[in-house]
Amino acid sequence: MRAQGKNVLTFAAGEPDFNTPEEICEAAIRAIKEGKTKYTPSAGIPALREAIAAKVTQETGWQVAPNQVVTSTGAKQALYNTFQLLLDAGDEVILLAPYWMTYRDQVELAGGVPVVVKASREDRYIPNPDQVRAAITPRTRAIVINTPSNPTGAVIPREILTQLVEIAVQHNLWIVSDEIYDKLVYDGEHTSVASLGEEVQRRTILINGVSKTYAMTGWRLGYLVAPPQVAQAASNFQDQVTSNPSSVTQYAALAALKMDMSGVTAMREEFHARRDLIVQGLAEVPGFQIDLPGGAFYAFVDAHERLGSRTDVEIADFLLEKAEVALVPGSVFEGDGCLRLSYAASRADILEGVRRIQCAMKEWN
């Protein structure tokens, strides 16, 4: 539609709209000029692995050594490596819905079977430990935990996380903890699974990266932190797939991890203001139910009251055609009847987009 000259406002993108900080860009340019453009170890340059290990140790209390860190071409590759290593055909993985759709696809690519445990808006999309426990079978191999959540923005409280990891320990499950939005929390605080004790750390594979925190989505640098034998296996596996992530990106990521956090704080504060703005506007649409998300940069609208016999895909298509607003239907994330809007957009675009949605929904019958 944009190619046709239409002014489509998009709230579908899962990436910050800010530019990468100049300090990070300068580090990349410096690396190029200094000839740091060769192969590196598959798991990443030692300095970057040391910086990541130090970060995780400081933030979680997990005493991480550099050989427990494997950098990759984005957090998505770190997840892919993880599922390929953990799963045999028929192994089950518990997914807490609504969830990022990549989890299901990657589990299935590894021969695994996704087992979905759904959380409701009434529970603010916080998983119910009793339902998780009931979903475990002799074939269950792992549970995926994502906090703050894509798509809901839910931040799982420490007490619920503690119950979830206790279940994992009891049933000898691996915990795959996706914490890519850990620095984008507005209410309360982020609790890392890795902070919940040594027994948990022995079965945790922590996934993170620089994309969301430092506005570096296109640079493609993620990482996993795991027990040494798992990290070594991940490095060996990656060596036969992509080998190392871009050497230049690694030096940029190293600069990101060493830089002052004031820029990240400013970005988070802006997202906080945008969150309040978009939620206030969407809550004024009759039949739209929405709560303040605690983190990430997504608003997750429950539109069940407006659907009738139709679907969230139809309402998303309607808003694209009628209001020229792009968003993502919740069914993509196994959140049927809902809509996901990213507020990684300017305040002006948010105000205009919400206005268009409010007007268009008056014609939705």
Offer a few descriptive terms.
alpha/beta; 365 residues; globular; 2 domains; Aspartate Aminotransferase, domain 2; Aspartate Aminotransferase, domain 1; 41% helix
Report on this model:
The chain has helices spanning 22-33, 46-60, 75-86, 101-109, 129-135, 158-170, 198-201, 228-239, 247-258, 262-283, 304-307, 312-323, 347-361, and strands spanning 9-10, 69-72, 92-97, 113-118, 140-146, 174-178, 204-209, 222-225, 298-302, 325-326, 328-329, 338-342. The chain is α/β, with parallel strands linked by helices. The protein has 2 domains: 2-19 and 262-361, Aspartate Aminotransferase, domain 1, CATH 3.90.1150.10; 37-258, 3-Layer(aba) Sandwich (Aspartate Aminotransferase, domain 2). The strands form 3 sheets. A 7-stranded mixed beta sheet has the order 2-8-7-6-5-3-4, sandwiched between helices. The protein has a 3-stranded antiparallel beta sheet with strand order 9-12-11. Strand 11 (328-329) and strand 12 form a beta hairpin. Helix 3 crosses helix 8 and helix 10 (262-283) runs parallel beside helix 13. The model has no long low-confidence stretch (mean pLDDT 97).
